[in-house]
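Aim 2, interim progress: modelling of the magnesium ion-bound target.
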Amino acid sequence: MRSMPDDLDALRSALELSPENVPLRTHLARSLLSRGAHAEAEELLRAGLRLAPDSQELKLTLARCYRIQGKTSAAFVIVEDLIKRSPDPAPAYLLHARLLLDTGERERAAREYRKALREDPDAADRALEKALGLDDEDDPGLPALGPTPIRLEAEGLEDLDPSAFRLERPTITFAEVGGMDAVKEEVRLKIIHPLTRPELYAAYGKSVGGGILLYGPPGCGKTHLARATAGEVDAAFLAVGIDDVLDMWLGNSEKNLHALFALARRERPCVLFFDEVDALGAKRSAMRHHGGRNVINQFLAELDGAKASNEGVLVLAATNAPWHLDAAFRRPGRFDRIIFVPPPDEAAREQILRILLRGKPVADLDHAKLARKARHFSGADLMAAVDRAVEAKLAEALAAGVPKPLTQKDLLAALKRTKPSTREWFATARNYALYANEGGLYDDLLPWIE
Ligand SMILES: Nc1ncnc2c1ncn2[C@@H]1O[C@H](COP(=O)(O)OP(=O)(O)OP(=O)(O)O)[C@@H](O)[C@H]1O
Ligand SMILES: [Mg+2]
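Predicted structure of the complex, ligand included:
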């Protein structure tokens, strides 16, 4: 997606070889800034600061980068900090003056400019003096001082609405996911091992990349498993509700999708998880949305890009309605593994109950029997039942003034009062499995259909 001329590529490669080289990084960032590639510059500088958190040079350049993008308050924060700490605050004073001028505080700006000169007489800047009204001479080379509007092609993350995604570092691992052995194995093969053992895949000439699409009835652990995948490899977890992306940024979603992938790259290793991905792929829904087709194309392009260059970005998606998904999503390198996540079987339900009850005060329980009684329960249904039992027990304990452990009877009663939710889904799935099972796509579903 780079539109920059390739002379910067030499700098990029050099930096890849010596990421600790601060002057090189600053130089590249400045070159990018001068060509309008603000977002790439920002990414570069932030990555640099993770390696060298105290670098004044990187901080100053990042502040400039923010100012150019109109992120004035972020720029102020850095500059004010630099003024306090930097052994050579003149450049920070200068930038502070410019920022104050941007925001219309000419007087304060002039004061800061004078401080800069006091620190370093060589810091004099005629153009700035003129803008500050400190110099009467004409200066035809006056550069524009106001914030430059953000370019449309910039790869900025600034438009990302944090409420449309969740960035976290999960601590749960596969140990907290009951059952799903086949699914876990597939995720290991396709996602985890390529990340942890890339040399093995290379040795066999096995290409990596491409995502896994999980589908199945609600509450059976798709999202839970995706999060645990991140925990399993100690990666970041970026969960995106596609509906949110579409609704909040209507007309702007292509740009936002790109920014999302950029964010995932910045956080890598990162599990990028698209929840309810059918909303994006849905033929019907796409038509309802302005520019829906473009969004799909952009999404696919980003996915293909993820395969080509986003090593360390693992793409997972989940849906209840895979049949709404555009066939283009299933091409090799995209979501080329489509995995059915079934309701937990008896053994899995037993495991899930053990996981859910871990750390809670319980009496002797017959987990196997509870699992047997929870036919057609999803993981979420089991969670609801346990919650219900806990609440009842809590009320009892509050009344009695002493904590009491959960008993088999409590749990059985709660299970009885909870309605299993997985059957409904199969009623819909049935039609697709029987009549739209192109290429055996839904073969895994057939044994579940009555
Ligand atoms: N296999 C499982 N092991 C442990 N807990 C589970 C399992 N399946 C579900 N749960 C529990 O149920 C909750 C709901 O599951 P989750 O959100 O992952 O379902 P989902 O398949 O993503 O559902 P939806 O299709 O509605 O998004 C989880 O937060 C987790 O606590
Ligand atoms: Mg989910």
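The longest helix spans residues 379-400. The pocket of adenosine-5'-triphosphate (ligand 1) is lined by residues 177-180, 218-224, 318, 320, 344, 352, 355, 379-380, 383 (CB under 6 Å).
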